[in-house]
Amino acid sequence: MRQRAFTLIEVLVVIVMLGILAAIAVPKFSGAADDARSASTQSTLAGVRSAVATFRMNAVINGDSPFPTLAELTGNGVVKFDMPANPYTGVRGVQAVSQGQAGNRTVISQNSAGWNYYFDNNSVPPVAIFYSNCADASSVEDGNGGMLGANDL
User: Fold this and answer.
1) Conformation bin of residue 76: beta by default, left when phi > 0, alpha when psi is -120 to 50
2) Which residue among 90, 94, 114, 122 has the highest number of C-beta atoms inside a 10 angstrom radius?
3) Side-chain half-sphere of 17: how many Cα atoms within 13 Å?
């Protein structure tokens, strides 16, 4: 009985076709991980900022200080979920930063905390800034043809 097999030409044609498909598909999906990191960062920032806004609304009604302290923020009183790791660095935790650092969105000790928080209940008006502790480029456009840094989201 005669056995059939693929010829070398048939195998090469299949390999070339797979290579062409890979060359087309890989660039299409290479940005998916960047988009996911940016979306996850934006989601975490939105959740924390929303929790801080809710805290502020309740505090103002009760006549308390409008923004939570770092201890209040990281405890279970303000944010009702476990603070996730920063999607860009994989580092958990929130650290306090100064007014100047927060204003410039400065990244500090990127390997020790994933998020930065500044608040001042004594300024007029009171201020609170929560941002990502990573300056990697995100996949969010800055409006000038560039990309925002993760700390600018």
Assistant:
1) alpha
2) 114
3) 6
Q: How far apart are CA 132 and CA 140, in angstroms?
A: 14
The vertex-44 CA angle with 54 and 64, nearest 5°, equals: 25
* CA 80 distance to own-chain centroid: 18
Domain housing 105:
35-152
pLDDT confidence bin for 81, thresholds 50/70/90: confident
Band of residue 1 on the pLDDT scale cut at 50, 70, 90: low
pLDDT at 42 over 70: yes
E strand spans, 61-135: 94-96, 115-120, 127-132
Q: Which residue type occupies 121?
A: N
Distance CA 79, CA 51 (A): 6
Q: Is residue 136 in some structural domain?
A: yes
Q: Tell me the C-alpha distance between 5 and 2, whole Å.
A: 10
Overall number of domains in the chain: 1
Q: Is 125 helix (H, G, I), strand (E, B) or coil?
A: coil
- Are 131 and 102 spatial neighbours (Cβ–Cβ below 8 Å)? yes
